[in-house]
């Protein structure tokens, strides 16, 4: 690593020394890489894939990734110097850099945007980054040896909550101070302060211990016993404490104390007696910070022995991998795919490689992570969006160092620094949430995983009970291998699916608000049998909109062309597109009437009404509103698993991958909103959703029932769902897609033009579409058209769809044309402030 630097070097270059330049990826949406000159003394320490510090623009100092090192000075500008080197080994691997480049090219964004999305911000330092003391660092106890500069930083942090990097630089009077920050992070004395999400909040437990003089002074403890004899409850507490913390053997044990909850665990010991002892000054209470990864108390388990079907599936997969790079495992819900994955992961690890296990959503990860942790213990890294940045940086480093050999994670795990992958698993491969919608890179993790596998010469296994039409097509055409598991594991049967005609029920007066009497009776029966129920409704909130009974006024978002949803728990109207919210008005702002009515219904209303209709039921809701905090998913799932809750109401979150033994009924409250969606994928999606949510019922032994409420029971999709007839869905869909020109036969790119003026947005879209027709041909360009929701966040939207036939299209050339057209449009002064988003393979 470099010694002290300043901005005024170098001295005259000696002629025999090579001058090196580094192309760097800055974490900014810049169209190209910037080249910096490497000072001679850093020639040996700058590496591809490692971070360096550079100055960009006026005063901004940033860390960036070295993408290339060469001897060519940039032709059109004077290269500035690299200021400092941060890493002594690369933090981004070779295959990763190639993958990032592919993502930028394919999804039409900049490398900076890819880096920005991919790197945890703790690895993206800038002069505005801030540090704070590590919450677990204790200057009195921890005997860490610090350099004098490090001591200075620590001292400053003991008196300031946080310091920016610039402040650290000023404090040390040094330009190259980053190495000290890095070293302090490694010594676990400081952490990067999180500004965006909440800052690092340590996990704390309440503990108690004996007040010091009872242990320090001779005879005090005996006297205490005598005093407490008339108070048997308090005496019990004391005895319990001494049993668990034998201070008579070693008085130092008292210092660490005992968790308060541990002390009152015994049913006849009450928390109030503990509090009395605290008040009396016998015990004292204190907080202790504990680790977030409490792996130690998990029982290690061997993987389950595979059943005959599972063994067969596994053998088929391994057999197909000999010829094909990609295999799709099409196994019905509950067929035991997870155990097959675990077995394959074990083999991959034994062969010495890394494994990436992709999951679509974190609701799913809670259960599967527990299962995987039991088998893989400390080798398993977990990566998901609710993790704090420090946790993510830890997983990143853990993969580089070899600590984590298996990683289970959501879509962003494809950015992690794997270098030796031997298997990628994409579970629930049909899931739309593998696609990132906003911001760039708008990547699909499933597709990216396939490219990653290719770059690392490894295999990919995709799995689903309801494969995407595109994936199944790849199997049918022989590009991928296909393995099928058509039976549930063990004795479990697929559930019985029944339709309830709600129009008919309404006529017969057999509807109680949104519940048919058939559904209500069925729920009651399960409650009596102490079985559990899952109810699905695909809208959150109480009602999707409200309306005045007198004048039909409907409140709309100020910034978007949508009605505001009503949320009862906080009496708010809320926009689900931009987050705008206001208080629910008392009376109609238009006519003054007090007859505001909620229209339609969401999960909150389902929960609310069910509590009224079945007061004995313990109902819990799982949707975006109830799962905002990091552990809320886990809590809801744990409560349901332990039987604390009887009925789980939720949005699509409850449909995915969850595995509960005791669920014997699944209810779908309103199937029609799912089916009647204006999108070529509507039927595929509806099928997937119904089969997946049905798949939560009757997973172990107990027979399961699914009740679907609909106004249109003759809709053909239901027959396919009831018969579990994926083949017929596929045949129908693929035929339509061929006929109307949709994926997999074409590649689509959706271009969204946005502007604050409706007219400008429209004009720009017209000009752009025309240019695209000239460049790509009339057949290839659809639109422009105004989407159904035509304004979001005060920007008016226009869309153009580009369809490129899969066969005989030079994709790269077409994208270049598109980029050129967008570039040209922006050059026109009238369209200066126009925003254009290209979404490749939109979902
Ligand atoms: P899928 O992912 O295909 O929906 P799971 O892997 O969740 O199915 O398996 C369904 C249920 O069967 C789970 O509760 C699982 O624990 C159980 N199971 C699967 N395979 C085995 C096995 N080999 N031995 C014991 N139980 C198993
Ligand atoms: Zn009104
Ligand atoms: Zn809005």
From TrEMBL:
The keyword Kinase does not apply. GO terms for biological process: DNA recombination; DNA replication initiation; DNA replication, synthesis of primer; double-strand break repair. GO terms for cellular component: primosome complex. It comes from the Bacteria. It holds the Pfam family PriA_C. GO terms for molecular function: 3'-5' DNA helicase activity; ATP binding; ATP hydrolysis activity; DNA binding; zinc ion binding. Residues 318-485 form the Helicase ATP-binding domain. It is an enzyme of class 5 (isomerase). Keywords: ATP-binding, DNA replication, DNA-binding, Helicase, Hydrolase, Isomerase, Metal-binding, Nucleotide-binding, Primosome, Zinc. InterPro entries: DEAD/DEAH_box_helicase_dom, Helicase_ATP-bd, Helicase_C-like, P-loop_NTPase, PriA, PriA_3primeBD, PriA_3primeBD_sf, PriA_C. Zn(2+) 1 binds at residues 548, 551, 588, 591. The keyword Nucleotide-binding applies. Residues 583-737 form the Helicase C-terminal domain. Its EC number is 5.6.2.4. Its cofactor is Zn(2+). PROSITE patterns: HELICASE_ATP_BIND_1, HELICASE_CTER. It catalyses: Couples ATP hydrolysis with the unwinding of duplex DNA by translocating in the 3'-5' direction; ATP + H2O = ADP + phosphate + H(+). Zn(2+) 2 binds at residues 557, 560, 575, 578. Binds 2 zinc ions per subunit. Initiates the restart of stalled replication forks, which reloads the replicative helicase on sites other than the origin of replication. Recognizes and binds to abandoned replication forks and remodels them to uncover a helicase loading site. Promotes assembly of the primosome at these replication forks. Component of the replication restart primosome. Belongs to the helicase family. PriA subfamily. This is Replication restart protein PriA. It comes from Pontibacter diazotrophicus. The lineage of its organism: Bacteria, Pseudomonadati, Bacteroidota, Cytophagia, Cytophagales.
